[in-house]
Write a structure and sequence with these properties.
Blueprint lengths: L2 E16 L1 H14 L3 E12 L2 E13 L4 E21 L2 E20 L9 H14 L1 H29 L4
Antiparallel strand pairs: 1-5, 2-3, 3-4, 4-5
Helix pairs in contact: 1-3
Length: 167
């Protein structure tokens, strides 16, 4: 079985007026532009008296080498989502109002092709390989992955701040 190490988690929250579809598209495009393939693991939408409640679970994966892969999980939670009309540059446009929280979890996956799984000796050698031979490469990849999650959080925060209006 491939080894998955959670190296970082963080989140961003926003309350106010924002565009759900544009935020969804922005985040999706960010992952694609960075070379990730995205799988939507879940999407639930409930109609509540105070607006829609939406939960989305994404898993984005990017191959780094034959041995390493980055995985970033993005779990969205949207509460009280309603449609509102706002004035933007002299025109009325439809946007959304509500709370959004997106949690990101960064995972460094090692031996995802299961090449070191065929025997107890290979598993033992993998431990030595990781601990002594490629220890600094693992640390470099962990740092790079943390940097990517920091960047996506900052990008989403900036996007929401520019596109949205606090209530």
């Amino acid at each position: 079985m491939a080894e998955k190490d959670e190296v970082f988690s963080g989140k961003t929250k926003y309350t106010g007026i924002w565009d759900f579809k544009e935020t969804y598209r922005f985040l999706y495009d960010w992952f694609v532009d960075k070379g990730y393939s995205i799988t939507e693991k879940g999407y639930t939408e409930k109609i509540k008296p105070n607006g829609k409640e939406i939960e989305i679970k994404w898993e984005a994966k990017k191959k780094i080498s034959d041995y390493f892969r980055f995985i970033i999980k993005a779990n969205w939670r949207v509460l009280g989502l309603t449609e509102v009309e706002v004035q933007k540059e002299g025109a009325k446009i439809k946007m959304n109002k509500g709370d959004v929280e997106i949690k990101f979890t960064a995972i460094l996956e090692k031996d995802y092709e299961h090449r070191w799984e065929n025997s107890p000796l290979l598993k033992f050698l993998r431990g030595i390989y990781e601990r002594y031979i490629i220890k600094s490469r693992i640390e470099d990849y962990e740092d790079k992955l943390v940097g990517e999650v920091d960047e996506v959080i900052a990008q989403v925060k900036s996007f929401l701040a520019l596109e949205g209006k606090h209530s």
